[in-house]
Each structure stands twice: as structure tokens, then as C-alpha cells.
Write a structure and sequence with these properties.
The complex is a heterodimer of chains A (263) and B (279). Chain A is mostly helical. Chain A has a single domain, classed as MetI-like (MetI-like fold), CATH 1.10.3720.10. Chain A contains eleven helices and no strands. Chain A starts with a helix and ends with a helix. Chain B contains 13 helices and two strands; from the N terminus they run αββαααααααααααα. In chain B, 71% of the residues lie in helices and 1% in strands. Chain B has a two-stranded antiparallel sheet with strand order 1-2. The longest helix of chain B has 33 residues. Chain B has one domain: Orthogonal Bundle (MetI-like fold). Chain B is mainly α. The chains are: A mainly alpha (263), B mainly alpha (279). The interface between A and B is large, with 99 and 96 residues.
Chain lengths: 263, 279
């Protein structure tokens, strides 16, 4: 029984370590004082200030715009790529999958500077377009990785049966394959969306002309010092990502969490 | 079948946005000249020569050292948690694992910033300390703060892969060992631990790679003077404008990571599954 107590205490301490900073941030976003040591009463003023801050609102706009566009584009490209890859002979399949792993395994900073070098080489001006292109690039591999397992599960002969019965390949794709792998596609799209919202390193290197996302804005704010507006922003971002996560989790709970995968 | 054609757009995309950029970095690393003017480039090893001098080697050493220590701490803290969780009932297990995932989905910068507010000179910890009469401590802008930031940010990356391997271990193997007279310590050392090695190796890679290449944690919690190799790369590309030197450091970083992966993937048989983790 002592053993069980120690286990409980240990797990509790680890979770305390993980959550204490987040809870402190959230609590102090309602604190009516700039100081973080003292509780000076409940207030919403940091939230009001947050929504008056033109820089943050613009960053929010770009964050969401880039996230939605890159999620849609990378989901479309990634889904078709996954379907193609699953029908490839094994050697080329291996090569493509390994290349696909590169952005996943490479440190963010290397992916970021390599894309920066590419855009400079192609003389594309840094700004919205470069940020969007780089987000699509690092999102597609995750879409592929979430669609491929669904394709593997699917009965290979379904599409063939449809085509034997007179469907064109495109019609079979639209009416048979895509509906079968839809859960994987949606999960992939949601992952792409959250990765894009959350990204800092790659955006930081591949943006310009005053286009910034929330992460970049947060970075420059934290370098200027502590500001309770960031606490309010964290609270809102945390809550909205929680909602997204719950949706993703609901979708995959039964199949994947039991198998022990992260998503 | 005809459907393999649907991968062609992405293969083209990969060529342009994955392969060419890395080749460019390689090209930059082995040339010198005005970074803004491609026609002035000449082959040279100057960037590497410059890197292998005491100042920069010290930075590399510090990055590898901090990443290594934080990986070890994550392993020591994370393995027991993963082990405890996998013994729980299915429902509780899923909730606990979800609780490890949730902080990962909070913005990385905000998680690090949260520690800034806790550890700072006027932060909560120092406030409590001075209330209790201990006086304020210097908690931030040093090695320990950076280490703390790394462990905090990357601990879930260690726990999740270890958990996913532990939970799949066949219970009858443990029972068999017990039937054959092994005590608890023997069961753990000779059965559970060897079977969980793939998870440990994945965890090590997933903690070590982001830790060794970070520049955010060091620049937020380590202060401005505090440099890791990630900070050096950032400076070369964002401020100094010496892309050649920055590229050569990126190559060195990649080599380090390839070595780590080569070592760890020997144990990691499950990599082909295509699942992978999110980091």
C-alpha cells in the first residue's frame, strides 16, 4: 500500500510540473496588476487590451488565414500523394516515404533555413506567400502519415471492383476510395491546421514585409518583457486548441490511443 | 495501377521544397562569397575551418551537453511515469495519456514563457521565497533554467513512446518469468526493460533532436548572452547575413542528428509502421 502511495504521489508531482506553469498563466491573466507575485483582484482588462491591440489582431488574422489555406492545400496534395504512394512499387515507395520523412525528422531550424535559402535563390520576396508555401511543405508529410494507415486498412479490391463494374478511375476514387479513408483525411487536415497555428521556427525565418503570425508576435513580446496581455492570449489559445484536440481525440480515441499512438 | 500518378504533384513538390533546399544548404556550406550574390560563390572549406575553432566548438559542446543531460533527465523522470500509467485500467490510462498530450498542444513559446514568469526576479517562486524569508534567488538566465525548459517541453516526447511500447508487452511473458521464479527486480531488468528498448530509443531521439537544435528555450530562459548552436544558426541567417557559415553549422547539426538516429534506430524496429510521433 505504501508502494501505491508513492506511485500516486510521483504521478501527481509529474502532472503538477506539467500543469503548474499553465495554470499560473491562466490565473494571472485575470489579475488586476502587472506584477506576477501579487493578486490584486479579478479583471478582464488584459482581454480587452488584447482585442484592442492592432498588431495581435493582424497576427491572428494571418495565423488563421495561413492555417486554413495550408490545411486545405496540404490535405488535398497529401491525400492524392498517399493514394499514389500506396499504389507504387515497393522501391519507389520506400524512396518517396523516406524523403517524406525528412521534414518530420529534420530539426525545425534546418527545414526553416533551407526553405529560406530556396526562396532567396528563386528571388521570391519574403512575406505571406513564402510563409504559406513553407507551412504547406511541413504539413503534407503529416497528412500522408495519417492517410496511409487508412489506405492500408482498406480492402484493395474495392476500387478494382468499382472499376470492373464500369467506374472510371476518377469516379472510383471519388465514390469508393475517398469515403473509405475520410477519417484519416480529416485527422490529417486537423493536424495540418494545428501544426500551422502552432508553428514558430519555420514562420520566423520565412516571413517578411510585416506579415507575422501569433507565435512571432508572442516571441517579440516576450523579448520586450513580461506582459499580462500574453497571459490572456495564452489562455484563449490554450482553450481553443483544447477544443480542437478534443475533437481530434474523439475521432481517434478508440482506434489509436489504445494502440498507444499520440494522435 | 493508374492511381500511382496521383502522387506525381507531391513528388514534384518534394523535389522543389524538400530536396532542392537541402542541396542549397549543402552548396552554401561548401562555398564562400557574398551571400546575396550567387555569382560570387567559390568553393571553400573556410566555414568548417572557422567552426572548428575553440569558440564555436565550445558552443557545440554546450548544446550537445545540455541536450544530453535533458534527455537523461527526461528518461529518468519519464520511464517510471510511463510504467505506472501502463499498469492502470484502460479508461484511466487513456485519460492520463491525454493529460500528457494536452500541454504539448499549447504553443511552445507560451509554455517556455510560463517558466519565465515563474522563475523571473519578480516571479511567483521568488515572491514566495521572499515571503518565507529566504530572500530572492537567481533562477533564470543560466544553465539550469535552460535545462528546466528543455525537460519541461520535451518530457511528453519521452513518456509517450515508452508508454506505447510498454502497453503492448504481452502479459504472459511477465507471468512466465514469475512462474520460473524471477523476482520483481529480475522480471523488470530481464523482461520488461529489454522489451521496452525500442520505446526508449524513440524517446531519446525525440527529446535529443529538438533539444540540441533549439534556439527559443535558450534565448528566452538563457538570456541574450547565452548561445547554443541553434542561436548561432539563427544569428547567421537573421542578423549577420553570413549564410555560408550558417549553412555549414546546419550541416554539422544534421550530421549530429544522423549519428543519433543511426545509433537509436538500431533498436527501433517499429519505425516502418508509418505512424511516427508528432514533435
Amino acid at each position: 500500500m505504501v508502494n501505491k502511495g508513492i506511485k500516486r504521489l510521483y504521478t501527481f508531482l509529474i502532472f503538477l510540473f506539467l500543469y503548474a506553469p499553465i495554470i499560473v498563466l491562466i490565473v494571472f491573466s485575470f489579475n488586476d496588476s502587472k506584477s506576477r507575485g501579487v493578486w490584486a483582484g479579478f479583471t478582464f482588462k488584459w482581454y480587452i487590451e488584447l482585442f484592442k491591440d492592432a498588431g495581435i489582431l493582424k497576427a491572428l488574422y494571418y495565423t488563421l488565414l495561413v492555417a486554413v489555406l495550408s490545411a486545405i492545400i496540404s490535405t488535398v496534395i497529401g491525400t492524392f500523394a498517399a493514394i499514389g504512394i500506396s499504389n507504387m512499387p515497393s522501391l519507389s515507395k520506400k524512396i518517396v516515404l523516406n524523403l517524406n520523412y525528412l521534414p518530420v525528422l529534420n530539426p525545425d531550424i534546418v527545414t526553416a533555413v533551407s526553405l529560406m535559402a530556396l526562396f532567396r535563390f528563386l528571388r521570391i520576396e519574403f512575406g505571406f506567400a513564402t510563409m504559406l508555401l513553407s507551412h504547406i511543405t511541413f504539413s503534407i508529410p503529416y497528412v500522408i502519415l495519417s492517410v496511409l494507415p487508412k489506405l492500408k486498412q482498406m480492402n484493395k479490391h474495392l476500387a478494382e471492383a468499382a472499376m470492373d463494374l464500369g467506374a472510371t478511375p476518377f469516379y472510383a476514387l471519388r465514390k469508393v476510395v475517398i469515403p473509405e479513408i475520410m477519417p484519416g483525411i480529416i485527422t490529417g487536415g486537423l493536424i495540418a491546421f494545428t501544426l500551422s497555428v502552432d508553428d514558430f521556427v519555420i514562420s520566423f525565418f520565412n516571413t517578411g514585409k510585416g506579415v507575422s503570425n501569433l507565435s512571432i508576435e508572442i516571441f517579440s513580446m516576450t523579448r520586450r518583457g513580461i506582459n499580462p496581455v500574453i497571459n490572456a492570449l495564452s489562455t484563449l489559445m490554450f482553450l481553443s486548441l483544447m477544443v480542437l484536440l478534443l475533437i481530434i481525440n474523439k475521432r481517434t480515441e478508440k482506434s489509436e490511443i489504445e494502440r498507444g499512438e499520440i494522435l | 495501377m493508374k492511381m500511382k500518378k496521383s502522387a506525381y504533384p507531391y513528388i514534384l513538390w518534394m523535389g522543389i521544397f524538400i530536396v532542392v533546399p537541402l542541396l542549397l544548404i549543402l552548396y552554401f556550406a561548401f562555398t564562400s562569397g557574398d551571400s546575396q550574390n550567387f555569382s560570387s560563390f567559390q568553393f571553400s572549406l573556410d566555414n568548417f575551418r572557422r567552426f572548428f575553432t575553440p569558440i564555436y566548438l565550445k558552443v557545440l559542446g554546450r548544446s550537445v551537453n545540455l541536450a544530453f543531460i535533458s534527455t537523461v533527465i527526461c528518461l529518468l523522470l519519464g520511464y517510471p511515469v510511463a510504467y505506472i500509467i501502463c499498469k492502470e485500467k484502460l479508461r484511466k490510462r487513456n485519460i492520463m495519456i491525454l493529460m500528457f498530450v494536452i500541454p504539448m498542444w499549447m504553443n511552445f513559446l507560451l509554455r517556455t514563457y510560463a517558466w519565465l514568469t515563474l522563475l523571473g526576479r519578480n516571479g511567483l517562486i521568488n515572491y514566495l521565497m521572499s515571503k518565507l524569508g529566504f530572500g530572492t534567488l537567481n533562477l533564470i538566465y543560466n544553465d539550469k533554467a535552460v535545462l528546466l525548459g528543455m525537460v519541461y517541453n520535451f518530457l511528453p516526447f519521452m513518456v509517450l513512446p515508452i508508454y506505447s511500447v510498454l502497453v503492448k508487452i504481452d502479459k504472459s511473458l511477465i507471468e512466465a518469468a514469475e512462474d520460473l521464479g524471477a523476482n520483481k527486480a529480475e522480471v523488470f531488468l530481464k523482461v520488461v526493460l529489454p522489451l521496452s528498448l525500442p520505446g526508449i530509443m524513440t524517446g531519446i531521439t525525440m527529446v535529443f533532436i529538438p533539444a540540441v537544435s533549439t534556439f527559443i528555450i535558450s534565448s528566452l530562459l538563457g538570456g541574450n548572452k547565452y548561445n547554443l548552436i541553434g542561436n548561432l544558426i539563427e544569428q547567421q541567417f537573421r542578423w549577420t547575413g553570413d549564410w555560408h557559415f550558417g549553412s555549414s553549422m546546419s550541416i554539422i547539426l544534421m550530421v549530429f542528428i544522423l549519428i543519433t538516429m543511426a545509433v537509436t534506430s538500431k533498436f527501433d524496429k517499429e519505425k516502418e509502421g508509418g505512424g511516427g510521433g508528432l514533435w
